[in-house]
Amino acid sequence: LGLAMYASGLCAVSGAAFLYHDYCVIGAGPAGLQAAYFLQRAGRDYIVFERSHAPGSFFALYPRHRKLISINKQYTGKSNSEFNLRHDWNSLLSHDRRLLFRRYSRDFFPNADTMVRYLEDFASLLKLRVQYNTAIIHVTLEKNEQAWNGHYFLLTDQDRKNYKCSSLLVAAGTWVPNVVNFPGSEYVEGYETVSINPEDFTGQTVLILGRGNSAFETAENILGVTNFIHMVSRSRVRLSWATHYVGDLRAINNGLLDTYQLKSLDGLLEGDLEDLAIVKDKKGKLHITLRFYLENRNISAGIDSITLPQDELDNFATRAPYDRVIRCLGWKFDFSIYNRSLRMMPGKGNIKKYPQIKPSYESRGTRGLFVLGTASHSVDFRKSAGGFIHGFRYTTRAVHRLLENRHHGVPWPSTVYPITQLTNSIIKRVNEASGLYQMFSVLADIILLRENATAFEYLEEYPVGVLAELEMQTGRKARNGLFVIIMEYGRNFSGADKDVFYYNRAVGEAQHAWQSNFLHPVIYYYKHLPTEREMRLRPPDWPLPRPNAIHHIVEDFLTDWTAPNAHILPLRRFLENCLGTDLRNFFAESCFLFAFTHQKLPPSCQQGYVRMQGLLGSQELRQHAVQAGLLQDYTHTDLSGDRPPDSHHGSQEHLMRDHGIPLRPLQHLVNAKDE
């Protein structure tokens, strides 16, 4: 039987043997290991291929100056582990509390070597099935109607060993350096190879091509030893505190902005790099000119025969020669290993460095091929955190849940609650959930209402881009309407040209919550599941189509949405208006009154008092309610007139109190404790 099972995993195609796995994962970086963790916990057949001898090989080299810009906040004042992940941008998700990154480093911005060690431990302690020193050099398709997706994925490594899988998860990241070719670009040094020893730049004049964190990181390293540094890029600098995008320039690297604006020789310039040209003189100095000056001229003939911009414009900005030119233009996805049959095409415009994928992270060209991690950032590029560990650890989990439903019939995890818990459930999630917080505008909690709104089903962190496909992707039904809970910034608050520190920038009153600027919860209500067409025609910059009703929970300076009047009460009233019901919680004596005076009891009475559950009117509760102004004080009221305390009526009263039956006249009973 063992031999038969082994033989069944080996398939012969064109004379080559293929080792079969249900899932193949390319890359053992953070996203690949995260995917492996979920596959292993689910008991799936998988293998991870890593070209290096250890996981996280990207971090073994980058960032070159070894300081990560992902925060590692040790203290938050809270012990809630889910909340603390909001401020831990390095840990992967697992059940093992030993694998929290704060146990590996106490630095707010950790060293990249610590990340390498952390990923090694994550793979080894969890016993993930990673095959090291295996570089996949070719991927193609084999059509087969019996396969999960109508085809198998065939992979070949550097040793010509072959593998076959039903589903392919690409987590190889973006690691191919972006290179701009122009006349003289051979004189340019790359970020991936340039010296990181500041002494090598002493007394030199340096030009840096690029304007991202790698460019400013390089400038920060040599700022104190150079004559001056110029930085050229086609776009203006984008500060992360203005755009609210963590991939833009972070404060830890922006020293050059100070020296530029405070007149200390360094400077920033804007221009299209493809229009540049570099000419080297006899002394080894590098001169910047423009491509059109070199037309019909031989660059090797020497600088004396070439017209430079300063020959016509004597105050040309880059007229001073440079000792070194460094390219810091980031990275792009490696498309070279994928056969044309997979139709792995680059995106368009500013996302051309990423493969084209759907909001479900599945390739637009090939069913069953999912892109994870940094390479999946086209879904939320310059919007959310999907290109970084603290974002894609949640999108990877979402992809796993989609696959579990599609291939194994395991519906998206959900919890069913009575409708009386609706307000509490939302408040709990918006105050704790890390996935909603990090992947704002991309992942959302979905509340599916049951018939007659007596109960609801809660689904966590579903990709809103495929909301129209919710029933197919999750195995859950949305027949009676739904709420979508998502986190958003204000519509006009983020941008490279925005002043985010202007006076009165925050909203504090609930009636103005829709004008909130900082990250805050937004609840969308739909009577019916939105269609594909409605998703396509949604307003610009809206994550979702126009709902039947929408509610903003007002922004909070502490990101603590638990204030009874500012946060909870407006939310509860919004939910009640959508459902046409009363979501307050009542004491038993109020439910008793409603039973005599109303045709329909509030849900808390139906699900509590009628079933002999809920809060009984004990002496302590009554006293508390009186002190809170919720009940009138009848302590000194003689309900029995002049009867002696040991009368028959007194015995009845004692008996009725023992059974929790309220004694006051109906007209004196008050409505409720409004929680």
UniProtKB/TrEMBL annotation:
Keywords: Endoplasmic reticulum, FAD, Flavoprotein, Glycoprotein, Oxidoreductase, Signal. It holds the Pfam family Pyr_redox_3. It comes from the Eukaryota. The keyword Chaperone does not apply. Transmembrane segments: none annotated. Its cofactor is FAD. One of its GO terms (cellular component) is endoplasmic reticulum lumen. Residues 635-658 are annotated as: Disordered. InterPro entries: Auxin_biosynth/cation_transpt (IPR050982), FAD/NAD-bd_sf (IPR036188). Gene3D superfamilies: FAD/NAD(P)-binding domain (3.50.50.60). One of its GO terms (biological process) is ERAD pathway. One of its GO terms (molecular function) is flavin adenine dinucleotide binding. Interacts with SEL1L. May interact with OS9 and DNAJC10. Interacts with TXNDC16. Probable flavoprotein which may function in endoplasmic reticulum associated degradation (ERAD). May bind non-native proteins in the endoplasmic reticulum and target them to the ubiquitination machinery for subsequent degradation. Belongs to the FOXRED2 family. This is FAD-dependent oxidoreductase domain-containing protein 2. It comes from Melospiza melodia.
